[in-house]
Amino acid sequence: MFILETILTDGIAQLSYLVGDADAGIAAVIDPRTDVDIYAQLARKHGLSVSHIFETHIHADFVSGSRSLTDRLGTAELWVSGEQAAYRFDAKQVRNGQEFDFGSFQITARHTPGHTPEHMSYEICESKHSEMPWAIFTGDSLFVGSAGRPDLLGDEQANALSGELYNTLYDYFLKLDDFVTILPGHGAGSACGADIGDRLYSTIGYERRTNPFLKYPDKESFRDFVIGDAPPVPWHYPELKKVNATGPEIMDRMPTIAALPPKDFRSVSREPGVTIIDTRSMLAFGGGHIPGAINIGDRPELSAWVGQLFDLDQRMLLIVDSDEDVRRIQRLIVRTGHANFAGYLAGGMKAWEVSGLPLETIEQVTVEQLREMSFHERDLTILDVRSPGEWEAGHIPGAKHCCIAKMRDRISGLDKATRYATYCASGYRASIASSLMKARGFHDVANVPGSWSAWTASGYDVDKPEGVEA
């Protein structure tokens, strides 16, 4: 019996796969994530032995779990691209056209450069119909409604890679039969492709008819499309490229994280290179938090925001709602490369409060209050911390734009003596931004829960460029 399991890693919208033949008892894993227990569990569930682990390419948005899974299982061979590859660790190299037998089906490697030079996709076909693939693991080359970015390796390589991506899409994928199922490496929300669709899979036929990346008559117009409108590359992507090319450290278990009583927590927080991450809700954080803490709420996207905002060697102190949440939140953080934990606050903020240690607050203002403040407080700056695309599509009248991604190292162009109210789409990013500002010496900062969603739901005026519908 054919087995196919799709593993969606929320927050980074990463898709990995376990594919196997229950009768033959063997399986392969495609692009495993950092915390690899899930693959061993699925293999046991189906009575399978994982014999092969395949990497489609050198990943940029998460730390690969391939080496850790190989070490954990003891039965699997790790295969990486042997075409234009820059891997610097021991693994078997797969070549274009190489075939692998899994009983009732076989996997064939296809070199599909463009997102990266070494990128491989993997066709699946029935062994008795080896000339006719019915599905393909596309990695980051072709997505649902989108395609991989060719600009993650820098401007110097972007032009050449866009040409290779064009060839991959038009000379390979579009020549496959319409019924071929595509199984991509990411879903909606990943920055590895623009506007990736919500569905986790598609077909070549559907993409042929609907995917805007497959509508360009020549390489020049295609290049202008894929590079010209590309959003900024997340800061941590080049760093994770280096980690994954060199070979991530083997993680046989989650890193140790010590439970620290409040006074020890405070002492460690004062050491160089330590960052406090408070994962509580924005309202709880605003009501009282440890001075200097950054509010990145307990949601899947915590992975990407920790990766985007902090150096990989930064030591993390965690604050959680319940001590039972520590391991789950720790898993989110290690996926984007952070494995250096200084500890967590044992007993949470309740323990801190009863210890009589200092607290700070961040005012939380409703959109109704914000609207009134904008009329009457001349020294108020409404700060939109969303992406440039969101800002250009519409914003609160009189607001100033400062994308949160630009706050990573320092916050420039803003006067610390000014009063600010931060907003985003829902308040999540705004709370990150307001806490960053507070930690860096901005004394009068408020956050707007609900943010743009609440503002527009209330029917308040918005500024929109000409041609953008209200």
From TrEMBL:
It holds the Pfam family Rhodanese. Keywords: Hydrolase, Metal-binding. Gene3D superfamilies: Rhodanese-like domain, Ribonuclease Z/Hydroxyacylglutathione hydrolase-like. Residues 270-361, 376-464 form the Rhodanese domain. One of its GO terms (molecular function) is thiosulfate-cyanide sulfurtransferase activity. One of its GO terms (biological process) is glutathione metabolic process. It is an enzyme of class 3 (hydrolase). PANTHER family: PERSULFIDE DIOXYGENASE ETHE1 (PTHR43084), PERSULFIDE DIOXYGENASE ETHE1, MITOCHONDRIAL (PTHR43084:SF1). This is Putative polyketide biosynthesis zinc-dependent hydrolase BaeB. It comes from Adhaeretor mobilis. The lineage of its organism: Bacteria, Pseudomonadati, Planctomycetota, Planctomycetia, Pirellulales. The gene is baeB_1.
